[in-house]
Amino acid sequence: MKRFASANWQGTGKEGKGTLTSQSTVLNSTQYSYSSRFEEGVGTNPEELVAAAHAGCFTMKLSFVISGAGFTPGNIDTKCTITLENGAITSSHLVVTASVPGLDAAKFAEMAADAKANCPISKLLNTEITMEATLV
C-alpha cells in the first residue's frame, strides 16, 4: 500500500503561503503558512498533521492489541502533542484514555506500551515518545 500527499509553497519562508492536499482529498488545498506553523494563524501545519497521524495510528493499533487479547474496546481517546524545538521534532507525547469492559489497569498498561512501541508512526518517528495511559 502507498499513500501520498502533496504540498505547494509560494514565496519566502516567512511571508509565503502554501497548500497541502492529501490523496483522499480530506486535505484539499488546505492552507498553511509561517503564521499557522509558528504563531497562531489560521491553517494547519506539519507538526499538527504528524500529531494527528500519531494519535490515529496509535489508537487503531491499541484497538487491534486489545481485540487480539479477547477484549472489546468501548472507547479510546488519544491526544498527541508534538514538540518542535530548534528546528527538530524533539518529542511526541500520547495521552490515552480508554474504556474496556473486563480489562484491568495493569494489562491495559502493557497493551498501551505495545501499541506505542509498534504502531507504524511510532516506528517512523526518530524522537522520544512518552505516554500517559488511563483505563476508565
From TrEMBL:
Write down the InterPro entries for this protein, in alphabetical order: KH_dom-like_a/b (IPR015946), OsmC/Ohr_fam (IPR003718), OsmC/Ohrsf (IPR036102), OsmC_Ohr_Peroxiredoxin (IPR052707), Peroxiredoxin_OsmC (IPR019904)
| UniProt cross-references to Pfam families, sorted A to Z | OsmC (PF02566)
Molecular function GO labels: peroxidase activity
Q: Which SUPFAM superfamilies match?
A: OsmC-like
Name the GO terms of the biological process aspect: response to oxidative stress
Q: What is this protein called?
A: OsmC family protein
